[in-house]
Amino acid sequence: MNVKKIGLIFGGVSTEHIISIRSSYFIYNTIDRARFQVLPIYIKQNGQWLIPNQVEAIFPNPIEKTELEFLSEFISQNSILDGSDKHLLQLLELKAIFIGLHGGQGEDGSVQGFLEVQGIPYTGSGVMASALAMDKLRSNQLFQSVGIPVAPFLELKKGENDVKRSVSELPIPFPVFIKPTLGGSSVNTGPAKTPEEAITLIEKIFVTEDRVFVQELVKGTEVSIGVLEKKVNGRWESFPLVATEIRPKSDFFDFTAKYTKGGSEEITPAEVSQEIMEKLKRYTLLCHKTLGCAGYSRTDFIIRNEIPFVLETNTLPGMTGTSLIPQQANALGIDMKDVFSWLLDLALSL
Length: 350
Hints:
Blueprint: E1 4-11, H1 17-30, E2 36-43, E3 49-50, H2 67-77, E4 96-99, H3 104-107, H4 110-118, H5 127-134, H6 136-145, E5 153-157, H7 163-168, E6 176-180, E7 190-192, H8 195-205, E8 211-216, E9 221-232, E10 235-240, E11 244-248, H9 255-259, E12 264-267, H10 274-291, E13 296-304, E14 307-314, H11 324-331, H12 336-349
C-alpha cells in the first residue's frame, strides 16, 4: 500500500491552544501508520509555525503539562527546520493536512482558506461552513430557518449598542445566556440572572470582542451528539452517532467543566427516550447539512419539556481519547483509527 505523507497542525493562537495539543496527541497516536506518515506541525501561541525536519517526529505527552512545558519539550526533542514558519508548508510535499486546531483561526475558516490558497487538501469542514458554525448569530438563524427549535436570541455590537440601554430594553426574559458571537469553548461565556450581571458580562466580552450573543437561558438536560461521514457504495454519506448526556458539576458546561478531569459527568448513550434520541439524531444531521459541514461535526442541545433546543455546532470538536465523539463512536463499535482514515480519505478525494 502506498503510504501517504500528511501533516498534523495543532496548537494555534486561540484560547483553546492546550486543548488542541491534547486532542492532537491522541490523533497523532491513533492515525493508521500502515497508510499514513504523520508530520506534527506545532503553531505557537504567537502564531509561529514549528516544523520538524522529519516525519514521525516526537510528539511529547502533553498530559499535566503547561503550554510552555510542552513547547520546551517539542523543541528540545525535535530538529526544527531552519527558518521554520508557514511559508515552508508548500515545500513539504504533503498529500493532506489533518487539522487538529480548536477555536479561533483553526475553526473560523481562516486556516482552511490559507490551505486552499496553498492548494493543500485538509480534513473537516470548508471555509464557509467553518465560518457559519463559529458565528452564533448566523448559525442559529439558519437552524431556525429549517425548523430546528432555537431559544429566542439577539446580538449586540460594540460601538453600535449602548450596553445599559440595550439590557434595560431586552426583549428576552431573564435569566439569559451570554457569549461572544464568534467565541468557542465557553471562554467568557455565562448566565446572567439580572440586568446588572448581564451588563458586567457584556462589557467584559467587549474588551476583546466586537459582537455579543444573548439568548434565553434554557434549563434542562444538556446533550451533545456527533456526525461522521464515511464512504458507502462509492459515495460519501453522513450519519449521526448517539447522544451523550452532560451533567456539569458547575452551573453550566463551562470551560472548566469541559476540560477539567471530574468537571462533569458524561453518559453515553444519553439516558433519554428512543423518541428523543431519534429526534436528536435527525436534528444534528440537519445542522451538519444546513451549515455545509464535511467529515465530522458535533452539535450541542438542551432538552426542555421533551423539546431539544439547539445551542451550537462545532466543526472541530475535541478529539482526546475521552472526548465526546470518541465516546460516541466507541458506543457504536466504531474504531477512531477508522474515523481518522475516513477524514483523510475524504480530504484526499476532494
